[in-house]
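Problem 12. The chain below contains 220 residues. Write out its predicted structure in token notation.
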Amino acid sequence: MDLRRLGLFLAVVDHGGFTAAAKAVHVAQPAISLAVRELEAELGAALLVRSRTGAVLTSAGRALVEPARAAVRDVRTAAAAVAAVTGLVAGRLDLVSLPTLVAAPLAELVGRFRLDCPAVTVGVAGAADPVELADMVRSGRAEAGITEAGSAIAALEVIPIGQQELVAISPPPSPLDWCRSGRREGYLLGCGLRMDVRLGAVHNAPAGRASEPCTTCHFS
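Solution.
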């Protein structure tokens, strides 16, 4: 199965249609259409149906998406492994993060990674919540994610990367400035309404493989 055809098929899926995919990957639309038709002929099944709003996956197309992503990701991983041996570290790393974690800690992590791996292009996508983020990692749309610890990422491999302290504040003065105990400890900022949120990097590691800290790319 041709890897280029799989990649163009995924481009149509990710961008919602042939026209948008052509613009995103800088390939002529007829070439993308031809690649998808050839892939369909090879598999003996229709994968996409054109509609007024773009392209819609058939049941066969939906079944192919995750294996296709895994194949593309495995080839990238293989190329990266060879590059690491030869000393040429290049390629692309696709990350996903909650919007609240982009400035910290993601920006610092990516900055440190880029210092060590300047030839690697880093892409960052956003997720509305931990559930969407976990789905993006599982499906292969992202190779790793920066999120909060919780049940949404229980099935993924998690590498703790730190904590953030959240505080609640209110305009002074107000009856809300009093703690429930009745003792005035200051405003809400001083009333113990603080939360430590655990942060972690998650990725879709092969089953049975133990988590190993990353010593090169700082995601540990």
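Discussion. The CA atoms of residues 127 and 133 lie 5 Å apart. Students who got a different answer should revisit the alignment rule from Section 12.3.
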